[in-house]
Design a protein that fits this description.
Blueprint lengths: L2 H16 L1 H7 L13 H19 L8 H23 L13 H11 L5 H30 L6 H15 L19 H27 L1
Helix pairs in contact: 1-2, 1-3, 1-4, 3-4, 5-6, 6-8, 7-8
Length: about 220
């Protein structure tokens, strides 16, 4: 494998690990148990890693590349540059919405659309639910950090988000997290369903309630 293609493959794998909700939305296997690290420290660590990818790209002698590898290198460079810009926007510090492109709505929309074809997928889903509480708390932490810096969300969107989340919190088990069906004919369904109910009630719902308290 050429140096440009190796760099592209490594960056793509790490990008998917850093953005596992996107990976799941695209149907790319291997990331369905993960949640992002949206803490400020986590994002800065990822920023440093992206910067290293950019430095590697800049160190590849372009005159030795085939036209195809030159295009690959340009794509990696542009993707990494855009990723740095996205991190620097720090949208997590001021974005609140009930729409499914940010915050808890992203996670719950993805949960509702999850298709669990086998036991591994079902277990990955439980792992993601278990980890979601910590991630939702990171989202709340970033909003508090943003507020301390004078970066505030749009008031009407906050009002909509509070209403949306309030409706969800009245649902047993937080409806969207209970939408996916276990694999057909699986003998572990009963135990899995019991654990899912516990995760929804004891992890996801309290974390969403804490998020509502943060934005209220």
């Amino acid at each position: 494998m050429t140096s440009a293609r190796d760099l592209a493959d490594r960056f793509h794998r790490r990008w998917l690990e850093a953005n596992p909700f996107v990976a799941s939305s695209y149907g790319i296997p291997g990331y369905d148990d993960l949640v992002p690290d949206d803490s400020e420290a986590g994002q800065q660590a990822w920023r440093a890693e992206v910067g290293q990818f950019l430095r590697e790209a800049g160190g590849i002698p372009r005159e030795q590349l085939t036209p195809a590898d030159a295009v690959t290198l340009d794509c990696v460079t542009e993707a990494a540059t855009q990723e740095l810009a996205s991190i620097d926007l720090a949208q997590a510090e001021y974005t609140v919405t009930a729409m499914h492109y940010s915050g808890p709505a992203t996670f719950l929309a993805l949960a509702a659309r999850s298709v669990l074809l086998d036991e591994a997928a079902a277990q990955a889903y439980l792992t993601r639910l278990r980890r979601s509480g910590g991630w939702l708390d990171q989202v709340s932490d970033r909003l508090r950090a943003g507020a301390s810096r004078g970066r505030l969300p749009v008031a009407p969107l906050v009002e909509q988000a509070i209403g949306w989340a309030g409706d969800l919190l009245t649902q047993p088990g937080l409806g969207p997290s209970l939408s996916p069906r276990p694999p057909a004919g699986w003998d572990g369904t009963a135990a899995w369903e019991q654990e899912r109910q516990a995760m929804a009630e004891d992890v996801v719902k309290p974390a969403l309630a804490r998020w509502v308290a943060t934005i209220s």
